[in-house]
Specification:
By secondary structure, this protein is an alpha+beta fold. It has 3 domains: 61-70 and 262-368, Efflux pump adaptor protein, beta barrel domain (Elongation Factor Tu (Ef-tu), domain 3), CATH 2.40.30.170; 73-105 and 230-259, RNA polymerase II/Efflux pump adaptor protein, barrel-sandwich hybrid domain (OB fold (Dihydrolipoamide Acetyltransferase, E2P), Beta Barrel), CATH 2.40.50.100; 107-225. 46% of the residues lie in helices and 21% in strands. It has helices at residues 2-59, 106-162, 168-199, 209-226, 362-368, and strands spanning 60-62, 66-70, 73-75, 81-86, 93-94, 99-103, 229-231, 236-239, 248-249, 256-259, 264-271, 283-288, 291-303, 329-336, 351-357. The strands form 3 sheets. A 6-stranded antiparallel beta barrel has the order 2-11-14-13-12-15. α2 (106-162) runs antiparallel to α3 and α2 runs antiparallel to α4. The longest helix has 58 residues, at 2-59. It is elongated, with a radius of gyration of 50 Å.
């Protein structure tokens, strides 16, 4: 019984084993196909993402070597003096024309009064000189009349001497009188020229030379008096204040700095190989470390004429010694669109990460890679 039963089950067991092998093989083939499909999809996705990243790297030029900059106004007096008032403090916002610092005006007020008095004296002196000119001209007219009378007397005397009516001695007296009258006229004409010279009417033709000089000195004194008050040259924030009441300051000495935060820009130092297709007018997107998650916008305004190293205090001397090539950076000025950050002030020195968007199509980029 047992032998028959064992003999009957052997083929069945062999058939079951074959079927299980076929099932296992088919299941293995299916799993391999699935793994291959998944691997293919992953490779396709990686290729797509890599290509997209590669194209974006060619059309979105980014750098982290960029900072906010602005015009820095160093404010100082135009005349020396002692500080009597300081009307601002550090980080205070001021408007253009606001009074910042005031110097002691007493010395300059005295100079104005002195020059005003000198101007009055000059005007009075000029009036007396005009009187001298008028008197000299009157004397010239009188001496010219005497000369004419002497010439007429001489002519009559010559006629009478010819007729032997008068002696020669009297004729000689008439000739001497004419010579004296002529010399007197010449002398008075010289006095007129001297009076005119004192008035400055000879040479440059200025009637009020002395008065004009004193008037100019008075105007300069008034101008220096106005310089004792130092005003803000622009809207901005006060910083680097180094002046206090009682300080004695000199003309041109920096007292404080004024930063106009409403007129800032970005200076981005790009590698030279990144600027192949960069030109003014391209759009820019940038982020600021101080405001994470906020994206600002701007445009490329200009590109510096040389690298930063070329305009440094000690430019490199590549013609001497061993040479190691270093990728240079060229500053790019980016104008900021103000509407993006009305409530978010951009302060000088802040770190930013700008991205210049190159307006090139993918087809043009791929076509440029064709070596043929």
């Amino acid at each position: 019984m047992s032998n028959r039963s064992n003999g009957a089950t052997a083929p069945e067991m062999q058939g079951d084993t074959a079927e299980s092998k076929n099932t296992t093989e088919s299941a293995g083939n299916g799993s391999r196909r699935k793994r291959g499909m998944v691997l293919f999809l992953l490779l396709a996705l990686a290729t797509f993402l890599g290509g997209r990243w590669w194209l974006q790297s060619l059309t979105h030029i980014a750098t982290d070597d960029a900072f906010i900059e602005a015009s820095l106004h160093w404010v100082g007096p135009r005349v020396p003096g002692t500080v009597t008032k300081v009307l601002v403090s550090d980080n205070q916002q001021v408007k253009m024309g606001d009074l910042l610092v005031e110097l002691d005006p007493n010395d300059y007020q005295l100079r104005v009064a002195n020059y005003a008095a000198q101007l009055d004296l000059a005007r009075n002196d000029t009036s007396s000189l005009y009187a001298q000119v008028d008197a000299a001209r009157a004397a010239v007219a009188s001496d010219r009349a005497r000369l004419e009378q002497a010439e007429q007397d001489l002519k009559r005397g010559e006629a009478l001497f010819t007729k032997e009516v008068i002696p020669k001695e009297q004729l000689e007296k008439l000739e001497t009188g004419r010579k004296v009258a002529a010399a007197k006229l010449q002398e008075t004409e010289g006095s007129v020229k001297r009076a005119l010279a004192l008035l400055g009417l000879i040479g440059n033709g200025a009637r009020d030379a002395q008065a004009a000089q004193k008037r100019a000195e008075l105007d300069a004194a008034k101008l220096n008096l106005s310089y004792t008050k130092v005003y803000a040259p622009a809207d901005g924030a006060i910083t680097r204040k180094s002046v206090e009441i009682g300080n004695i300051v000199q003309a041109g000495q920096p007292l404080l700095a004024l930063v106009p935060l409403n007129n800032v820009w970005i200076t981005a130092n790009y590698k030279e190989r990144q600027l192949t297709h960069v030109h003014p007018g391209l759009p820019v997107e940038f982020t600021v470390d101080a405001y994470p998650g906020k994206t600002f916008h701007g445009t490329v305004e200009s590109i510096m004429a040389g690298t930063g190293a070329a305009f440094s205090l000690l430019p490199p001397e590549n013609a001497t010694g061993n040479y190691v090539k270093v990728v240079q950076r060229i500053p790019v000025k980016i104008r900021i669109i103000k509407e993006d950050g009305k409530d978010l002030p951009l302060r000088v020195g802040m770190s930013v990460e700008p991205t210049i968007i190159i307006q090139r199509k993918a087809g043009d980029i791929i076509k440029g890679l064709n070596p043929f």
